[in-house]
Amino acid sequence: MNTVFLPSYSVGSDVYNQIPKVCGAYGKTAVVIGGKTAISKAKDALLAGVHNSNIEIIDFIWYGGDSTYANIKKLAQNPQFQKADMVFAVGGGRAIDTCKTLCDMENKPVFSFPTIASNCSPVTAVCVIYDDETHGFKELYFPQKSPLHSFINTKIITEAPYEYIWAGIGDALSKQYETGFSSRNDEMSHTNALGVQISKNCSDTLLQYGLEALTSAKNHQVSEALEQVVLTIIVSTGLVSVLVINDYNSCLAHSIYYGCTMLPQGEKHLHGELVSYGVLVMLLLDKQQTEFEKVYAFNRQAKLPTCLKDIEISTKEELDIVLDKVMTTNDIVHVPYKITREMVYDAIMDLEIYHQEHLN
């Protein structure tokens, strides 16, 4: 048996006005949990959204700063959380992942209110959990379902730091290519095939609207291009994540990201920034020259990484550390052919050569 809970969403500058209509059936009290900055940006709009309705926001609670089990346990013991009928998860991926895990464990309805467009966490049924002490990656947690509804306020998202949507585009660029590569030649169920089909439009939309959307984000303006990109980052990639098996959700581009995080300088770069570099390496390794050239040209214009210098890797020793990690990741296990260390290294060197030839 296969049960799929598809995410739903509302999008727009005044989307919080829909809260009573969408959430009213789930109770009368809500607690807002999220990041400090996110709560400060969304608080007035949230209160206005429930004004004169049958829903009362009883408290605003900081999520703890990271999606760790220690923070989740602390939130579960909070009297206001226990009292509330539902949770409004506000912020970025780590805050929303904390709330999704918490509400799954405590069997409480959760609605997401992303304040940045950096990933698809607001609509997915997967959470990244970090170690309580080191705050490094610990494991993935899989709730039974994604948030019941996501309220995507484009006005609030345009007010966020530019780097978030910039890196969000970099991360979302990978979905079409990684899902297509990982699922190649597989006999798929209807659900997986549907997810793979949706993925085929992710990168194309970003390449079409991405630069215009970035201009809108810089100017803190809502535009059609920005909405297209925000919906691709959050909803399109999120639908793919919900529908396909985890083996299809990521591949070599994310392996490259994990490799880069083994270096101290890797921590200075945003997730999607490093993933966008990994996309270029993967496309070269897979001999997708036409797609590679399109993404490379886009990355250059968007000022996303196109060479090792851009991600601060300058020595063979550093590259060896990256490759050591790449070859241990599960992301390159379910692939249409064996990926070797030499193949990854050669693709990285091919990218260096191509970059040098196209500097002007």
Give a short overview.
NAD(+) binds at residues 93-97, 115-118, 124, 130. By secondary structure, the protein is an alpha/beta fold.
Q: How would you portray this structure in words?
A:
Glycerol binds at residues 171, 254, 271. This is Glycerol dehydrogenase. It comes from Megamonas rupellensis. By secondary structure, this protein is of the alpha/beta class. The protein is 52% helix and 11% strand. It has 15 helices and 8 strands. Strands 3-2-4-5 form a 4-stranded parallel β-sheet, sandwiched between helices. It has a two-stranded parallel sheet with strand order 1-8. A two-stranded antiparallel ribbon has the order 6-7. A hairpin with a 6-residue loop joins strand 6 and strand 7. Helix 3 (69-76) packs across helix 5 (93-106), helix 8 (190-199) packs antiparallel against helix 10 and helix 12 (271-285) packs across helix 15. The chain starts with 8 loop residues before the first strand and ends with a helix. The model has no long low-confidence stretch (mean pLDDT 96).
